[in-house]
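User: For my dataset I need records formatted as: sequence, then structure tokens, nothing else. Please produce one.
Assistant:
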Amino acid sequence: MPVKKLTEGFLLSIKRFIKLDFGLLLTSTIKGLFISSILGVTIGSASALFLATLNWATNYREQHLWMIAFLPIAGLIIGLAYHYWGMKVIKGNNLLIEELHSPKNVIPIIMAPLIFAGTIITHLFGGSAGREGTAVQIGGAFADQFTKLFKLKTRDRKMILICGISAGFASVFGTPLAGAVFGLEVFVIGTLTYSSILPTFVTAIIADYACKAWGVGHTHYSITAVPEIDSINLLLSLAAGILFGLTARSFSALNHVLSRLFAKIKYPPLRPFIGGMILVGIIYLIGNTRYIGLGIPVISEAFIKQESYYTFAIKLFLTAFTLSAGFKGGEVTPLFFIGATLGSFLSFFIPLPLSLLAGMGFVAVFAGAANTPLACIFMGIELFGISSGIYIALACITAYLFSGHTGIYKSQAIGAPKHLLLRRR
């Protein structure tokens, strides 16, 4: 009899638990998927508009190179706009990361139009910048407006912000898996946020689909040769990964140094104005436009032609200078440029296929600079295929380990040290 009562009590408890847990789970899942769908369509469509406008700005600049001379004026306009209307959002991606760590205020919606316009102006007049920062900030700003609309609690608000970041990244690069993992990985070094995994993946996939539904395409790159996996090739990949990591570290360090130098100019709008004048002089001395804007043609070239030793270094400096001066955009596509051209050059003395080294560098330098090795492994597989997956993974992980804790996102928290030898003292 006691056994029967005990069994009945146990079964009743299980039924109550299943009923309660399943009901809450079902309600939460439906709510999350509903919001994810709206976010995905909205952010994916915004990314499509942004990419189409950015392509127009790039083509127009290349057809009217005299516009580069007005880069200082463009910088002044951007500086004034942020000084008078955007001081609350001037931290950009770092503001999103800070709100994920310590939620305080809803991201002002003005972040979206300011970063959109600032990035287009930067590219239209010849700044060396990327586009991921813009897409991520647009995604984060749009997503956070749901906090008030649906009266979300702190935990749900974090989920929404992660979804927005993931959707922006996924749709601007056409890599939904990498975008989702990026959102889960970026704000704490060494950890992932699994509590938001389902809505994050759904939002990223829908955003990517929505962007492509508008007819906006993405550049395709190809690794044409992948050697057999053996100990020699793995050691060579490890050596390349170390160089990619040190390059990422150099980019982050230079970015921080130049930012401190420009901060000495007390009136912020003058920073991009003065920086613009210096950039115009440098571009004139270089004598071509290979190193400004996104640099997509040079990235494509790096997969089929060995690049010079200085190509990646020039882009590294110009991008760090452009962004530190206060121009807008992002770091990721320039980091693709830096990594791909460095990998292409390394084929001169590392006996691995040129296209493989370019692809490894493409994602590995970004992995080291952003401290997001898993997202970059997924990106490499999405872009180049699974056949190069082992080499991509080894390069990304090694670059991450050798890049140091200080990356392009200053507000990242350190969840776990990378390595005892690399731990910051």
